[in-house]
Amino acid sequence: MIAMSQRQWEKSAELLREGLKTLGGEFDELPEFEPFAATEKPERAAEILEETARRLGDNFPYFHPLYAGQMLKPPHPLAHAAYALAMAINPNNHALDGGRASSAMEIEAVGGIAQMFGWKEHLGHLTSGGTFANLEALWVAGRERPGRRIVASEQAHYTHNRISAVLGQEFTAVSAGADGRMDLNALEAQLKRGDVGTVVATLGTTAIGSVDALDEILVLREKYGFRVHVDAAYGGYFKLIESELGDGARLAFGAIAEADSIVVDPHKHGLQPYGCGCVLFRDVKVGRHYKHDSPYTYFTSKELHLGEISLECSRAGASAVALWATMQLLPLVKGGEFAEGLSAGRRAALEFEKRLAADGRCEMMRSGGPELDIVVWKPRGDSDAAQRIFDCAAERQLHLALVNLPENWFDAAGSDEHVSCLRSVLMKPEHEAWLGDIWQRLDAATAEVTGRKG
Q: Is there a contact between 146 and 134 (Cβ–Cβ < 8 Å)?
């Protein structure tokens, strides 16, 4: 099982060795010096690294297709190598003084993501992750619509509520239907109060991957005049395969270019290491909100410093280098190799849902199959069935996830009390080929818990 990942890591190391040779040649004119690290004991360093590797073994095998639980997708070997290569320089993309080459790479990579969403002009940058990217988007929204509320679905990521509190902005959660989407009637009831400044539309909720009806939310914007922020941290890359999605999701992704701001996480579907988020604004003039003076940072160039359009100061330039390199190898184009990886995961999710729906030991959501690549099901039986299947599956090296959802999402006659369900994110392209193995292990785990064979 480890052999597959071992080959990937060895490939990353090989790429890194070659890259370091080239990078070293770029600085040949500098005089030799004795690095401080050379005075360290190499034998002790090797011992510590070996101990570190053993400690890291106490982890879930995120890199393997049998890990099908949370939104964890292994970085591409080229991203591994490019990130490590950049660490030989250790660039800081806050200012050109700290990362001239990596800043240029960030601008190019972010521009490629903006083009994926249909934006020729934009303002944007990378962040440490989706949480900070959403914070910046809502911070700008608050400055554009001061004193007005932020509203989002109750199924939106919990950080929107916390971010709003940090920013001192009032937040309201709008109810969601049994499909996990924001209830638009409930949204309009909030809009009629006349104090909503920003609506957050989630294109790919964390729990079940539901896609809010962005196209219909934009119709309401014409009537009520609010900003629209799209949190597509998880689902954003599905823009590349929107034609393969169901009607609702396809219409939502088709309208994404009309949003005021968008967040997407390359460290989810984008094959990048943590942390790599991205925030984009359609109106470049919102950059005025970031304007500040720094007498000791921006002095080597009149070009744009990324720190001048970011709330964060020090940011790892290595993240930008890894993303740029990956996008050179796997461009963000419809029909390309990167897009096919998304399609493979989606096909796996649809097939997995089909098998579960045909299994009498499972209850599926009333709203139908997955909108993206997350599959959720409720095991029939007692309230602890999901936890016990989760544990039994892990004993068989199949790693799933748990989620609590309203009972009436599965049974119309059920209550709004939350019940424990099983959840799987089939986001690795390899999941399609491994689905048979995944099913066999889940079948055995379910039989052990329920006493019934599939």
A: no
437-452 burial, b at 16+ Cβ within 10 Å, e below that, comes to ebbebbbbbbeebbee
Express each pLDDT in 51-70 by its tens digit.
999 999 999 999 999 999 99
Distance, C-alpha 390 to centroid of its chain:
24
C-alpha of 375 from chain center = 17
Choose the CATH number for 100-329 among 3.40.640.10, 3.20.20.60, 1.10.10.10, 3.40.462.20: 3.40.640.10
CB 421 within 8 A of CB 375: no
Question: pLDDT value at position 10?
Answer: 84
Instruction: Name the nearest CA neighbour of 187 among 178, 199, 179.
Output: 199
pLDDT of residue 3: 46
Environment class of residue 293 by beta-carbon count within 10 Å: exposed (0-12), middle (13-18) or buried (19+)?
exposed
Q: Which residues contact 96 (CB under 8 A, 6 or more apart)?
A: 103, 298, 300, 301, 303, 305
Q: How far is CA 323 from CA 16, 113, 134, 305, 332, in A?
A: 15, 10, 20, 19, 11
Angle between helices 431-450 and 385-395 (to 10 degrees): 120
Q: Is the pLDDT of residue 223 over 80?
A: yes
Would you say the CATH fold of 337-450 matches that of 100-329? no
Half-sphere exposure of 404 (CA within 13 A, CB side): 6
Asked if residues 377 and 424 have their Cβ atoms less than 8 Å apart, the reply is no
**Section 401-423 average pLDDT:** 95
Quick check: 115 pLDDT over 60? yes
Which run of H or E residues covers position 425?
strand 418-425
Return the H-helix or E-strand segment holding 54.
Answer: helix 42-56
For domain 337-450, is the CATH number 3.90.1150.10? Answer: yes
Domain boundaries, the chain: 100-329, 337-450
Mean pLDDT of the chain: 93
